Amino acid sequence: MFRFLHLPAEIRDQIYHDVLSTDTARRPPVDDDEPASYKFNLAILQANKQIYHEAKKAFQDNIFIKITTPWPESIDHISSEGRVPIITTGSRAEHFQAFHLWIWIDTPGFLLSGPAYSMLICLEDLPAFTRMWHFSNLNHQSLNTYLRLKLTLQDPHVPDRKIPRDLQNRLLRPFGLVKNLHSLSAHGAKVLPSVEEALVKEQAIPDPSPEECLERATALKDEGNKSLLAGDYASALRLYTDAFAAIHITVSGRRRHVHADGYYIGELASGLYKDQRSDYVRLVLRVKLVANFIQAYLKMKEWEEARFWGRRSIALFRSSLTGDLGDDLRDDTKWGWVREAVKMGFPAQAEMGKILYRTARASRELGYDKEVENLIPAAAICLPHDGLVQNEKDILNERKAEYREYLRDIGAEF
Question: Which of 61, 108, 178, 385 has a CA positioned 20 to 30 A from the CA of residue 6?
Fold first, then answer.
């Protein structure tokens, strides 16, 4: 029989850390619209008294953060909108005391005797939480002016022990993104003045204006285009990803999430796009960046990635005009919604035409001939003066005519 306790202590400690760490407990999201989750395997703590005491030390190496607010809907917002993995909520979170940071968010009129709702997250997910909060404030410009933030540091295992500087920075500095609060306080566990001062200094830095964000995204896109022309496709994709981030759109692999729509409302007051609507400029940039993403993947001969990005963008475009949430392009033969968009003067017509055409190229490489037959005519609607696209449409029409004639010759019905 294998005797676990006969193993050297250092090997047992490594096993405890492997079993009980947040990295091991983390479960990837089941789809793009959900956050990751955590499932800790705590059965090892129930083996016997010695293993309990040894393994408990390993579990205590994890850094947990407790968040408390007076608004029950905030838990769902943090999870669904921010895609922040939450370990637990409700009474388990409320009674949990082994946290290193307690985040208390309320308003000046909140009564301490009123109900409060808690959730537990890991240190690794704190930047996602503060980033979500940052996006929310951009969407609702006056949100933070009504909120108080209280940050309490503690060593949950040794009372009054000072938390090391590096860990204090990891726990407090992410809140530099959370600006224009009604009030902020940080205390407990001997908060270092230098860390608190750095946090306050970062909070005082104003967010870039919509004008600055759009111009930054444009500059990054242009740099990406230079890399694309130079054959440095990986750098082009990185720069296009940074351009998306500049206008508050996060891209990670195949996951893309749009944030802070409310920040891009109204006319731009200065700069490259002066007097244009900010949402209009942002939309055009988004479509251009997708078209460039697809082109980079085509150059890299990553046909599946090119087709994925194209199909998703086409489906989103169609959904915005028709309400059709499907992504099957094989049966979309009339493309009436494309004609309608062109008739309405869709602002990114040429870029959408490039997406349609480049998606067709990827589909051809992968053998999706029916998609090609449908996508090329749609691209031709958006790009009426593009000789290459129009020529491909003519070739398709000739092949269809030849096929009809063949069917007619053999007496087949069609």
Answer: 61
